[in-house]
Design goal:
The chain has 121 residues and is mainly beta. It has one helix at residues 10-18, and strands at 2-4, 24-26, 33-35, 40-45, 51-58, 79-83, 92-99, 104-111, 117-120. A hairpin with a 6-residue loop joins β2 and β3 (33-35). The relative contact order is 0.29.
Length: 121
């Protein structure tokens, strides 16, 4: 099961794709290119209960964006591949797994350009 991260900037992402934009841009420090595509992260649910909502937002935002799972859940012991490529040049995201009982686990400052998986808890 895989999901694509589609925040409100999806229009920008589509416009860049249609314009034939290259898939790399320099990072703010100028040390290496940051890929705009293929930011796939395997989210592993080791929490012992199903994840009912999953959120990923750039660390620079103060709100959680859309529930990436939508109407789906992530059962305990299962994993899902999420593509964080959304047209932004940032790699650093905060992630939140939310459970049916209202509790949640938050992981901060995850570099989706370099990590291949994130486990909850």
């Amino acid at each position: 099961m895989g999901f694509h991260f589609r925040p409100f900037v999806m229009v920008v992402s589509v416009a860049l794709g249609l314009a034939g934009c290259v898939d790399k841009v320099p990072d703010p420090g100028g040390t290496q290119p940051v890929k705009l595509s293929a930011r796939n992260v395997l989210i592993v649910n080791n929490a012992g209960q199903a994840v009912w909502g999953f959120y990923g937002s750039p660390v620079t935002t103060n709100i959680w964006e859309e529930d990436i799972l939508g109407a789906n859940i992530l059962p305990a012991g299962q994993s899902v591949n999420i593509d964080f490529a959304d047209g932004r040049t940032t790699c650093d995201y905060d992630m939140k797994a939310e459970f049916q009982d209202g509790t949640s686990i938050v992981k901060t400052n995850i570099d989706v350009c370099t990590v291949s998986s994130v486990s909850f808890p």
